[in-house]
Sequence to fold (774 residues):
Amino acid sequence: MNDSRSFNWQGWSVFGALLLLWECASRFNPDLQLYLPPVSQILGTLARLIVSGQIVTHLAITFTRFLEGYFLAAVIAVILGAVLGYFRFAHSLFETVIEFLRPMPSVAIIPVAVLLLGIGDSMIVAVTVYASLWPVLINTIDGVRHTERTLIDTGRTFGLSRRRLLWQVVLPAASPYIVTGLRVSLSIALILVTTGEMVAGSRGLGFFILDQERSMNSGNMYAGIILVAGLGYLLNRLFLLCEERAMKWRHGMIAREAV
Amino acid sequence: MRESRFNGVLFLIGLLLVWELVAQAELINPLIVPPLSRILRIFAELFWSGHIPLQILASMKRALLGYFLAAAVFIPLGISMGLSQTVYRLFEVVVEMLRPVPPPVMIPVALLFFGLEDEMKIFVIFFSCAWPILLNALDGARNVDRVLLNTARTFGLPQRKIIWNVILPASSPQIMTGLKVSLPIMLILVVISEMVGSTDGIGYFILDSQRRFRIAQMYAGMFALAILGYTLNQVFSLLYKLVMPWHVALMRLRDGS
Amino acid sequence: MPILEVQNLSKTYRQMGGETTLAIGDISCKVEPGEFVSFVGPSGCGKTTLLMSIAGLIAPSTGKIIVHGKEVSGPPANLILVFQEFNKSLFAWRSVLGNVRFGLEARGNHSRESANKARSLIELVGLKGFENHYPWELSGGMQQRVAIARALAYEPELLLMDEPFGSLDALTRLELEDTLLKLWEELGTTILFITHDIEEAIYLSDRIWLLSRRPSQIVEELAIDFARPRDQITTRAEARFMGIRNRIYQRINSEGAP
Fold:
């Protein structure tokens, strides 16, 4: 564990060896090439698609849909979660509805969304919002309900109004839960955007990847996948970075407790 | 507690009633929002005629195959990565490279190799369940307490027995977490892969109903899917209680105090 | 032949950044079969390192450890170590009976008689009636009793104990000391005990080795010859008891200042 921060040359060699194996297998086997073009060729294709701008439009569309869906879901879920977590009566009303809706895989909502909103951006964003809502909502409710009673009472003795109590005490105290929900939703949102684009889209990376498969342009397809993976990776990194900034107080606290 | 449950059920029934009335009065396009009673009737018909159960059976066969295959491969791999720094370092980069790929975009790849066959869906589910199962098993094995391991070692247990009798049970709660998290992922991916490339299965059934504009039938399919999701969860909890009664009791004790 | 012989043992740790710390300086000692011997030293003096080396769980930097005539290179077959952290050393997924049977299973004994043997040990440590409880349902003192029963079920010739009562409350501690002495007298197991509680060491042991601070060394050996069976009130009330206690205390303190 002590050298886990050093460069993992074993891991990179295995990765490199696999890529090399792929490259050779594909080069010397024309049958395979149709399904699995050489890595070098895929990277070349990716570069070409980026330079020509062809894939950049798809990427931009996917990214925009993702941002809209994810942030809309986050805002709605945190507000709704805070209300449901704070007011027992509201929670008692919606508890059963939530339990009823949650077990259904969110992608099943896509056909309904197509009916209501047709094919296009709003449908994909709506589906993304619906799916990424749940983790944040459930976690926010949990977090707010688990807020220490003493903390709320302390806020009360300082004469905070209900609204300020919610903003300045309850939500910060629940933030570790909320962040967990937000992290889970991040990958869910990306899954839903790409799925929406595949099932009922005419633009975006999900559409592009499936479309290239159907026209047997496997090189383009793999290039698209690399790009989506890159997007997923960057989003995750960005999230961790923001989390570290925002949750500094908590990391300090945990480090202290661990000692 | 009981009273809040009552409120909730009442509220849900109220909402469903509003749906029924709005649809009956045709306040919203009845083609898009059919009355609940009709959806339930169609669900019952399709259920007893065996149409929906057949679709679910087709989906579950693929889903569970992919799921168990992922468990069979990635639990042992995760445990070895958790126990051995060497194994961890060998696989780390490959895992980190593949993990950010959103699972649905593997569907086209699977289509390319397997066509519309079952193997296509099985592969996609295998791929998407891999990460939660792997990372939880890895974490579980890595975090087995040193004192526990040293205890087993002073009793002279050979490494193989320590893995079976100590590390596996000690990390089993986290392994189960990985399996539990993967369950909804499995369901989502089987539905998506059936929507994108299939000729049967519950995902195909729902999308196909929509495309043929049999809207009540589409809702009936979604209803069946919700029941399926709920049932899977319940079955998992039941198995959990059967396999690890000690952990259920331990958690109850912790929550209580 | 001594059951345990430690010859010129030393242990150096490499820390992050390449610095090295000497945890154990140079320790040599012998334990005869059937003895109850204790190491006493200030906290952080490398007692645990010493015990882990004897148990074959960490390799010494220099020197030799010989258990029953064989040099230790891994956990020896006839030795068990009982840890202070009973909440971590017990198997949460096994009942009390299952935990104690683990000691027998480790010897390859899965028979029905092994269950009976486990039951009798559970009774011996005073946990009759708790066979089917999980360890985490019990109090700390009871959990450590389970750990002791499990260790004894293995029938070790040498039992190592690393501050086994260190995290128990005072009253439970006295009870467990007596249980341990009773078991030791009945079963004749050799016990090597580590503690930072001076009185506990005097009360339990035949001999005591005083350890210095890091790098730890044996600074004195004391023979304790109070009559057995000992008693929490009368033994501790003897005038010599306080005398020995004070001497050890002064010795550790004078060694102490680094």
In short: The domain at 38-258 of chain A is CATH 1.10.3720.10 (MetI-like fold). Chain A has one domain: 38-258.
